[in-house]
Design brief:
Elements (H helix, E strand, L loop, with lengths): L1 H18 L9 E4 L6 H12 L4 E5 L8 E7 L2 E7 L5 E5 L14 E3 L3 E2 L6 E2 L5 E3 L3 H4 L11 E2 L1 E4 L2 E4 L9 H5 L2 H5 L8 E10 L2 H8 L5 H4 L13 E5 L2 E5 L18 H4 L3 E4 L3 E8 L1 E11 L6 E9 L5 H33 L6 E4 L4 H15 L2 H11 L1
Length: about 400
């Protein structure tokens, strides 16, 4: 199913190349500038988006073995993700049942038990309380009601999704709209994180707009990697999730060959975005790689943090390692000094209140779709949102 989708997208791409066309929306979209700045809207986004929807928080390969864990903070919520001895991935609020201290302070590692550094209460890999320091002195504690708070978690396509609210959440399969079947063609469960950094940025939506936009590539990035790149983009949508590519003349060489011979590496090129906050951009420099960018809101509407993970298909040799390090440094520079520096200046200009709206042109279908769906998420309840997603499958 996933390869069939890749072939369909490639055929569509070839048709655009031959016709010298691109995707265009019926008209422009006008987004109020206040949507990027308003504290009340920001609080509603935290409640209706970040605390409600499944978020892509890890790669399965980061949790390859029983006991592997990753700890991170998402929209102010400390999260612990771990693979249990039974092979299942689980997620928890990283907070001890005793006094609420964070149980795990390292960003990643391997442990059979998680021991709180404050008073040494300990938990097993399923989050169950299994040890209370000086229990006789402390008093009776029921382990059944004092475990770590469980958060919904699931794996698809070698990626791990977590919801920040315990209990019922939007069904992940409904939310993904079949997108995971295409992402599975990467085989991410076998890939490995080569390097990781955090980059401060502007409002999370201002930052995310750029990941959906090829219009700026040959202009803003002309001195780094954008010279000669096309400004045109093609968008393949699976509900709110979008694969962004450009009309690629290189695909013409496959046109008359059997589809079984079409190279999957070529078919997977592009930027794969996952609503509301992830971009997976492909690179083939020294070794097959992707840059996974996870955007998270900051403490105010004017702040965000992007976690950049450079992920390789296989362990590189010495020359491949050097090439990967060079590319990772370049991408960090591009995002900090070009993308986010521009967005921060944009944010300061919008904050004056003198410009009331921003425009998304007919050629910026990705941004239009993102903002329209975000508005729907803020208005719809869970049942209405699930129904809307099922219509888009």
């Amino acid at each position: 199913m996933g390869r069939a989708e890749l072939l369909r997208m490639a055929r569509r791409n070839i048709a655009h190349v031959k016709a010298d066309t691109t995707d265009r929306e019926p008209g422009m979209l006008r987004v109020p500038a206040a949507h990027y700045l308003d504290p009340a809207r920001f609080e509603r986004e935290l409640e209706r988006v970040w605390m409600r929807l499944p978020l892509l928080l890890a790669l399965s390969s980061e949790l390859r073995s029983p006991g592997d864990f990753r700890a991170l903070e998402v929209a102010g919520v400390p999260v612990l993700i771990a693979r249990g001895s039974d092979g299942a991935v689980r997620a928890f609020l990283n907070s001890c049942a005793h006094r609420g201290a964070q149980v795990v302070t390292e960003p990643a590692g391997n442990a059979r038990r998680f021991v709180c550094p404050y008073h040494a209460w300990s938990y097993d890999d399923r989050g169950a309380l299994c040890g209370v320091f000086a229990r006789d002195d402390f008093g009776e504690v029921d382990p059944a009601t004092h475990g770590l708070v469980r958060l919904p978690a699931a794996e698809r396509a070698g990626l791990v999704w977590v919801s920040l609210s315990p209990g019922e959440s939007l069904d992940l399969d409904t939310f993904l709209c079949g997108y995971d079947r295409v992402l599975a063609e990467f085989g991410f469960e076998r890939w490995q994180v080569f390097a990781r950094r955090s980059v401060p940025g502007p409002n999370w939506k201002l930052a995310y707009d750029g990941y959906l936009d090829f219009y700026h590539l040959p202009i803003l990035h002309k001195a780094t990697f954008g010279a000669g790149l096309p400004h045109r983009a093609l968008y393949d949508a699976y509900g709110p999730h979008q694969r962004v590519s450009f009309p690629n003349p290189g695909l013409l060489r496959f046109e008359d060959a059997p589809e079984s011979e079409w190279d999957s590496r070529e078919l997977l090129q592009g930027v794969w975005t996952i609503f509301p906050h992830v971009s997976i951009a492909t690179f083939d420099v020294g070794a097959r790689a992707v840059l996974v960018s996870q955007l998270f809101p900051g403490a105010t509407p004017l702040e965000s943090v992007t976690v950049q993970s450079y992920v390789l298909e296989r362990e590189p040799d010495e020359s491949g390692r050097a090439a990967a390090e060079k590319m990772f440094e370049l991408l960090g520079h591009v995002v900090r000094e070009e993308d986010y520096a521009t967005c921060l200046r944009q944010q300061r200009a919008l904050a004056t209140g003198l410009r009331r709206e921003v425009l998304f042109g007919r050629n910026e279908a990705g941004g239009q779709r993102f903002h329209r769906f975000l508005d729907r998420v803020l208005e719809l309840d869970d049942a209405g949102l699930a129904a809307a997603l099922r219509k888009e499958k």
